[in-house]
Write a structure and sequence with these properties.
Structural class: alpha+beta
Strand content: 15-25%
Number of strands: 14
């Protein structure tokens, strides 16, 4: 392979090839599903919804030895304890969320009482609610009177400083490192390995007369900077990744293959030109058993059609496809034709040509209302007519640039599928870079599953946002 742009653009076109009906149906199903995901108002790859603790659970507590305030965020030990097991202990109303990097909460010691025997930690749901956190199995606790850490037994070990009236103490779980950590007045006092799998409840205890603590589950600013701590943890992960040995200039080859796959011919020329003096060419396709000719196929034509769609010139895109690849648009009930017709309708809405949009909808979109697999999308698209300001409407996402990209990507993949040398249609759908990222996501999810379903998954949008802000 020659890395110069001249060779990359002189790729042949063969419009005589037609894929099997099964392959076409697979591609159609994929494109329609991608259109549904793209039209969703919320990103498909956002964090899983998990309910986080918001207050103390007054039902599951040792209510006879303490009083919980009506706001369920503060507790007090009003009487004299007569026995070691007369502990006032209460869990949060929800377990700590697990599908994230870090969970954290704090307590403020309003009054240390007679002995200052407050405790903070994490316990299982079936924890005995007359014992300090850490005194029983499946629990960990950091105690104020001695500064000891208790891990599943009544005998503690030196851990951190004591805490008393006016102190703010926090407890957290670092799921990436599989560690508990505790803080005092915004500073970490110690960490320890978390060998407990499954849901854990933030737990607070008081154990001597007049002890009173207020709990902060995030309803107000923490004394400890959780965001800074998360940024440091992600930096550790990044440094670990950067130590991994890779073939020279592998990123160069991946980026180049991405530009080739999606038909960004002009950007490819600039990329190759800028790389000549500083980066020697890397034959990434050959190294990984791929033939770059497959993604070089019809590069100039794919670039032309993509630009037309991104400019909203759908009629011109249809015309080029009929001339170059008639087999792609000969079935008017295919996903490709459907998305192109919808995009034409959307472009008319965009420029305010409502009468023309209505006419176009009656002639070109009407047939899709009765077709299974198309009806939901076409109804959402047609709903643009119902709003005087469609951009601000619940279906305004159709008017975003990302919708044009969905259609352009669909057409790009269909053109690649006409290559007679293509053996696997999956190769038409994603670039090598995207396949690598999909594999990374799958491995991250599998690793989390093996880790008791704890910790965050890999999300590309989060990585990109972190890079932009340099601090997540």
């Amino acid at each position: 392979m020659n890395s110069s742009s001249s060779n990359s653009t002189n790729c042949g076109i063969n419009s005589s090839n037609t894929n099997s009906g099964g392959v076409k149906r697979d591609l159609d199903s994929y494109f329609l599903e991608m259109a549904r995901l793209a039209s969703s108002p919320t990103p498909a790859d956002m964090d899983e919804d998990e309910e986080a603790p918001t207050e103390l659970n007054t039902i599951n507590s040792s209510g006879g030895f303490m009083v919980v305030a009506p706001d369920k965020l503060s507790m007090k030990y009003p009487s004299v304890n007569l026995h070691g097991h007369d502990v006032g202990v209460v869990q949060a109303n929800k377990p700590a969320p697990m599908k994230r990097l870090v969970y954290y909460f704090e307590i403020f010691v309003k009054d240390a009482g007679v002995k200052g025997q407050m405790g903070i930690g994490f316990t299982r749901e079936n924890f005995k609610m007359r014992r300090q956190p850490g005194w029983e199995t499946n629990s960990y606790g950091y105690h104020g009177d001695d500064g000891f850490l208790y891990r599943g037994q009544g005998k503690g070990e030196p851990f951190g400083p004591t805490f008393t009236t006016g102190d703010t103490v926090g407890g957290g779980i670092n799921y990436a490192a599989q560690e508990f950590f505790f803080t005092k007045n915004g500073e970490i006092v110690g960490k320890l390995y978390n060998d407990l799998k499954g849901p854990l409840f933030p737990t607070v205890s008081v154990h001597s007369q007049n002890e009173e603590v207020h709990v902060n589950f995030g309803q107000k600013k923490f004394a400890f900077s959780v965001k800074e701590y998360e940024a440091q943890e992600r930096m550790k992960q990044q440094m670990t990744i950067e130590k991994i040995s890779l073939p020279p200039n592998i990123s160069y080859g991946l980026v180049r293959s991405y530009l080739l796959h999606y038909g960004y011919e002009d950007t490819l020329k600039s990329f190759d030109l800028a790389s000549k003096s500083s980066v020697p060419p890397v034959f990434v396709a050959q190294e990984n058993g791929f033939d770059e000719q497959d993604i070089c196929y019809a590069l100039n034509q794919r670039k032309t059609v993509r630009q037309l769609i991104r400019n909203g010139e759908i009629d011109a895109a249809f015309s080029k496809l009929r001339d170059w690849y008639p087999q792609i648009v000969q079935d008017d009930k295919s996903a490709t034709c459907f998305l192109l017709h919808c995009q034409k309708f959307i472009e008319l809405i965009r420029v305010g040509a409502l009468e023309e949009a209505i006419k176009y909808g009656r002639t070109e979109l009407k047939k899709y209302f009765e077709l299974a697999g198309f009806d939901d999308l076409v109804k959402e698209c047609a709903a643009l007519l119902a709003y005087p300001q469609p951009q601000e409407s619940p279906v305004g996402y159709f008017l975003k640039e990302s919708q044009r990209e969905v259609v352009a990507d669909t057409v790009n993949a269909m053109i690649l599928s006409t290559n007679p040398n293509v053996k696997d249609n999956q190769g038409c759908l994603h670039s090598y870079l995207e396949r690598l990222l999909r594999q990374l996501t799958a491995c991250s999810l599998e690793r989390r599953l093996l880790n008791g379903d704890q910790g965050e998954a890999f999300h590309l949008h989060r990585v990109l946002n972190c890079d932009k802000k340099t601090k997540c």
